[in-house]
Every structure is written in structure tokens, then in C-alpha cells.
Amino acid sequence: MSGTDDALYERLAAFEGLPAATAWTGKDPVNLPMIRHWCEAMGDEHPAYRGPDAVAPPTMLQAWTMGGLSGHTDRSSAYEELFALLDGAGYTSVVATDCEQEYLRPLRPGDEIGFDTVIESVSPRKTTKLGTGHFVTTRTDVRAGGELAGTHRFRILKYAPAARPSPEAEKPRRPRPVINRDNAGFWEGVAGHRLLIQRCGDCAALRFPWLPGCADCGSREWDTVEASGVGTVFSYVVMHHPSFPAFEPPYAVGLIELAEGVRMISNVVGVPYDKVRIGMPVRLEFLRVDEELELPVFRAGGED
Ligand SMILES: [Zn+2]
């Protein structure tokens, strides 16, 4: 830590042990309707939480201390000062990280709740994925009829959000193909600028995309033939919406019928998206998308 950080942490740590709330009372006594709503929301059907001898689910401990929409007023000045100090140091964001509870005695309908909250600890400066800041832990001692019924520790991180990479650095890349043993040969072909079609080793049927077996005869024997690269647009769609990262709509997606008779989905290039037509002749070429991805695409007007 730098000297400035040290000085800040020293000031933050001075808040440890100071009250955040003193002698507050629950807005409602422990009661069956709230218990019933809680159990419904949690899907908890335990019989201990029903009937004339019902107790409150222990995990409701915090619920009896909550301020609701209108909140609690008169939070301690120490709590306000601690948060002002963190805000002032640039730790303006907040995220709840975890809570711990301890139960000392069951709460029953009719119990009047009182509680005190203390700033238990402030951590040294920590860096997380969200950003750099300080963890603040408060401890609430919950009492019923003056007797300690449980404690609730609540930890938050007050942090300065990590700087986001610039939009240019974040420029999305086209999705990578999923290459497996059933289609590796196809991508090896693409790497060598050859568009390979699978051919059944038994019935000689051509197939595309690549599959482990022949759809006509079931044979798993196969070899390949190289496409001539001549084709026509069999059908197409123009993508306007939704937009996907790395793709800029509108663009045409063509179903290309190769001269060999199989069809493949690809991009039609060399013509505006709204000039693509069924039956349009196209010719194969390989498009270098980025340093590690090349794709077969089809250029319109490929008859020449
Ligand atoms: Zn076959």
C-alpha cells in the first residue's frame, strides 16, 4: 500500500467498534403472517413454523430488523461518516458479499425485537474482479424481550469499479468453429483452401455438413471429394435482427447449392445484401476473418 492508502486505512479502521445503529426496534413484533409469507416464498413446509406453538424460521432473523421501503431513520453519524470517507476516496460502488448468522434462541410470535448494529471491521484495501476497495462488516445483535436471540453479520464491498477495456480492445470476434473428430477433416481442408465434401465409402452418396455416418445406407466408411467451388444461391435470408457480436446487420446468409449437389450455409459476398437472388451463380473463395480464422464464402457473379 502507498502512504496515502495507509493513511486512509488508518482512518477507516478507527470506525471499527463504533455503532451503526443503537437501540432500534423491529417495525413489527414476530408474527405468523410474515412467517407464513416467508415459508411460502422459501418453499419451507416444516411443521415447526405453523400452528399455535409456531416458532419463526431462524433464517428470518434479519427480516425482523428490516426497515422496509421507508427504511429506518437516525442511522449513526459514524456509519454515515465511514461511507462518506469511502465515497470520497473513490470507492463509490457497493456490493453485498455475504452474511453469517448465529442463533441463540428461537423467536416466537409476539416477541418484540430490539437490535444494535456495530461496525465490526473494515478490511485493508483489497482488489477483486469488480474493482479495488474495502470490505465493511457490520454485526447486528438481535434481542427479544431484552435477551440476545441471534447475531447477523453482513459484509459489503465498497469499491471503485475496475476500468473497462476500450470498445476497440473489446471488439468482438466471429465465433470459432467447434472442431471435433467428426468434422476435423473439413476444417483441415479449409486450412488448405479446399472445400471437402464427404462421400460414403459404400453407396457413394455425397453429404454435407460432415457426419459420422451415411444418412442413406448407415455406413461409417467415407472419403472426400473436393468441391469445384461452383454453385448457385438455392435460398437465402437477410439478417436484420437480432444482431450478434461481430456481425453487422443487415447481411445475407445464403444456402448455396454446390455443383456436386450438396448444399451449405455460408455468406454471399461481393454484392449488397439486398441484391442476393435465388438462382444467382456464385463461386467459392476463402475469407480471412482474423489471424486464426478462415471461412469458405461465396462470391456473387462467379460464372466468369
Ligand atoms: Zn452410404
Q: How would you concisely characterize the structure shown here?
A:
With 304 residues, the protein is mainly beta.
Give a written overview of the molecule.
The chain has 304 residues and is mainly beta. It folds into 2 domains: 3-161, Thiol Ester Dehydrase, Chain A (Roll), CATH 3.10.129.10; 184-300, OB fold (Dihydrolipoamide Acetyltransferase, E2P) (Beta Barrel). The chain has 4 helices and 14 strands. Strands 1, 2, 3, 4, 5 and 6 form a 6-stranded antiparallel sheet that branches. A 5-stranded mixed β-barrel has the order 10-11-12-14-13. It has a 3-stranded antiparallel sheet with strand order 8-7-9, with helices on one face. The model has no long low-confidence stretch (mean pLDDT 91). Zinc ion binds at residues 200, 202-203, 205, 214, 216-217, 219.
Instruction: Indicate the CATH architecture of the largest domain.
Output: Roll
Distinct small molecules: zinc ion
CATH topology of the largest domain: Thiol Ester Dehydrase, Chain A
Specify the helix fraction band.
10-25%
- Listing every helix as H and every strand as E from the N terminus to the C terminus, the arrangement reads HEHHEEEEEHEEEEEEEE
User: How far is the first residue's CA from the last residue's CA?
Assistant: 69 Å
Q: Kindly report the name of the CATH homologous superfamily of the largest domain.
A: Hotdog Thioesterase
Rounded mean pLDDT score: 91
What would you report as the Rg, rounded to the nearest angstrom?
Answer: 33 Å
Give the total of domains. 2
Structural class: mainly beta
Q: Please give the count of helices.
A: 4
Strand content: 35-45%
Overall geometry: elongated
Major sheet: 6 strands, antiparallel
Low-confidence stretches: none
CATH top level class name of the largest domain = Alpha Beta
The strand count comes to: 14
